[in-house]
Amino acid sequence: MSLYVHQLRADQLIFWRNRESAIFVYLFPVLLFLLLGTVYDGTYRGHPLVDYLVASLVAYGVANTTFGGLAIMLVVRRESGILKRIRSTPLPPWVYVAAALTSIFIIFVLQTLTILLLGKLAYDAELPTDWLSVGLAVGLGASVFAGMGLAAAALIRSAEGAAAVVNVIVLPMTFLSGGFGPTRDFPAFLQTIADVLPLTYFVRIITGIFIDDDAIWTKPGAIAVLVLWGLLGAAIAVRRFRWEPIEG
Fold first, then answer.
1. 220 in a domain, yes or no?
2. Tell me: the pLDDT tens digits for 195-245?
3. H or E, element range at 121
4. At what angle are helices 198-211 and 131-155 packed, to 10 degrees?
5. Structural domain of residue 64, as residue ranges?
6. Distance CA 136, CA 170 (A)
């Protein structure tokens, strides 16, 4: 346990001391929420549209933080030789991975709380009443996209290209899934593409909790799809993840 706590503390210090990472992973979804909350107007299912934006930007934060942030961090550390050196220390690999996952989860929780607080203070957004479902949904989404982040880290070969690959995946997926606003007016072919994306189902769960006061267990189909994506990501990570640099 002491090794785990020590590594977790080190990961947190490294993250917050790196201003570029802090801005991209933690602050970018918050800034995007403030921007969209300013320019979007109207209603969604009888609620102010900002209520939807609070929920959808929380969902985007999952993909950006637990998927994108984790993948970039691991690829950079692998290609710079850090992971290889860690394997030669007494620190067990599973402890290192557990600490990295926990660190990313802490960042996402702080990010989510920031968006909720800003939504209430800046736009008087209505907050959910079922906080148990919120907590369970956040935990589910973070776990699923972290599994996918591990898979992405296993497949991305270049540290220089890691951020580009992640952005090419995350930003279009978020747009199509409704993370930047409702997709009700999208063409049918875009909605068909969205139906295979994991973030679509997480957005449905989160917006259902925030907008319709639905408990998380009222959407078993969406939960099942997310779990399958998470298991697929974990399976790829177990099979393909390497601690040694891939390039060269």
1. yes
2. 999 999 999 999 999 998 899 999 999 999 999 999 999 999 999 988 888
3. helix 93-123
4. 160
5. 2-240
6. 22
Note whether 137 and 205 are within 8 A (CB): yes
How buried is 100 (Cβ within 10 angstroms: 0-12 exposed, 13-18 middle, 19+ buried)?
A: buried
The H or E element that residue 43 is part of is strand 43-44
Separation CA 21–CA 7 (nearest Å): 18
Q: Judge whether 247 lies within some domain.
A: no
Looking up tokens 């972290």 gives: 146
H or E element that contains 139? helix 131-155
DSSP 93-107: HHHHHHHHHHHHHHH
Count how many Cα atoms sit within 13 Å of the Cα of residue 103 in the half-sphere of its side chain. Answer: 25
Residue 132 has pLDDT above 80, yes or no: yes
User: Is the separation of the CB atoms in 244 and 219 below 8 Å?
Assistant: no
